[in-house]
Specification:
Layout: H1 6-30, H2 37-55, H3 62-87, H4 93-116, H5 120-144, H6 154-177, H7 189-226, H8 236-253, E1 257-264, H9 267-274, H10 276-291, E2 299-304, E3 307-313, H11 317-331, E4 348-355, H12 362-378, E5 384-386
Parallel strand pairs: 4-5
Antiparallel strand pairs: 1-3, 1-4, 2-3
């Protein structure tokens, strides 16, 4: 079939391998936290190198155009699968050992069927059988491996490996049942489709890993945008959005929603006396104690510095005040300090506000709770104050 001759497909596979190899190595350099891209890049270069030598058949020695060329293609294909296993953080040692043993056995067989008992058919069957085995293994691992590095287009990538295995199985059948081949470069259409199958695996593996890594980066950025890195609770930006939606929902459903603003008392003195590292650990312990004392649907955030906010959906004033008092008592429990540091205790002041008025928006609710917190500070700290018209 015109356009599907082996030499032309070898050239397109060479160009594809160089393009994907450069792209994978550049991605690996920019995003070094993702494993597997270096192996992927080198695998494409190895496959491209193998096809350079294959394309030079009859122009260079048989050792290079047959033995080294085919070993490079299989080694590159194995390295490609190894890159996928690294990306999904799957165990790799068994595959490395097996692939190494297969390459050694293939090298010996190719030497024998090139110099001692020349047989193009035997060489084709050997390399095809190895690629079938690797492809089936890769397809199984891609489908069954569940990890944080799970691949996008998992089923499509698995299908591409299975398609590759099927084509190479057909290749084995036609070569085994067909007449002896004198020249691989003039082989039939099934050999051309085998090269296309390798190209499909190369393309789908590269794009699957790249898109999966990009999605993980996007997820990481989204987390960084909403989570406070020190305390691992929501930050102010996320809390404002939760509060806005929560107040609107409470108004729509005519249910109460309460807000607690809390502030660590005299936190500047902790930093001045013990250092900022101890201060950071106090903030971490503070947030941990709060998290362990809350209901599943309550929303806790670090609002800034040593100030924390707590949104309590479907919670009236009485319940909110009881919760705030329990939290105040939890924070005041001695000893409040990280292991290995000087012992210290801290307290916190709490301001509580509840929205019963459909005309009060989330910003007004925060302002009312802040006024209650100011009143708690003015009243001697380490106490809970509720916003009421009488108090303010």
């Amino acid at each position: 079939m015109e356009g599907l001759d082996i030499r032309t497909l070898a050239l397109t596979t060479l160009l594809l391998g160089l393009f994907l190899g450069v792209g994978s190595l550049v991605f690996a350099r920019i995003h070094s936290s993702f494993y597997g891209f270096k192996a992927l890049g080198y695998s494409y270069f190895l496959i491209a190198f193998g096809f350079i030598l294959l394309g030079l058949r009859q122009y260079i020695p048989d050792f290079l155009s047959i033995i080294v060329a085919n070993l490079a293609v299989v080694a590159g294909f194995s390295l490609l699968v190894l890159g996928i296993l690294k990306f999904v953080k799957c165990e790799q040692q068994a595959f490395k050992s097996t692939a190494t043993a297969l390459l050694c056995a293939m090298a010996l067989a190719f030497v024998y069927y090139t110099y001692y008992q020349t047989s193009v058919n035997a060489r084709i069957i050997i390399i095809s059988a190895i690629i079938v085995g690797i492809s089936v293994y890769a397809s199984f691992k891609v489908l069954t491996t569940q990890s944080q590095g799970a691949l996008t287009f998992t089923h499509f990538l698995s299908f591409s490996f299975l398609y590759c295995a099927l084509i190479f199985l057909l290749r084995i059948y036609f070569v085994y049942t067909g007449p002896p081949l004198d020249d691989f470069m003039n082989a039939g259409i099934v050999h051309a489709f085998a090269l296309i199958a390798l190209q499909l695996v190369a393309i789908t593996s590269c794009f699957s890993l790249t898109i999966s890594a990009s999605q993980q980066l996007a997820k990481k950025l989204a987390i960084q945008a909403t989570i406070d890195s020190l305390t691992n609770i929501y930050n102010r930006r996320a809390f404002d959005e939760f509060a806005r939606k929560g107040v609107l929902r409470a108004q729509r459903e005519r249910t109460p929603i309460s807000l607690i603003i809390m502030d660590i008392d005299l936190f500047k003195e902790v930093n001045d006396s013990y250092g900022h590292q101890v201060g950071d650990k106090v903030l971490q312990e503070f947030s941990l104690r709060l998290r362990n004392s809350l209901r599943q649907y309550d929303i806790l955030a670090r609002y800034g510095g040593e100030e924390f906010t707590l949104l309590l959906p479907n919670t009236n004033t009485v319940t909110a005040e009881i919760i705030a008092e329990k939290l105040r008592d939890t924070i005041a429990q001695p000893v409040f300090c990280p292991e290995g540091s000087a012992e210290l205790s801290v307290t916190a002041s709490f301001g509580v506000a509840t929205n019963y008025d459909k005309y009060i928006d989330w910003q007004q609710l925060i302002s009312l709770a802040d006024k209650a917190l100011y009143h708690a500070k003015e009243s001697g700290r380490n106490c809970v104050k509720l916003y009421t018209a009488e108090a303010h």
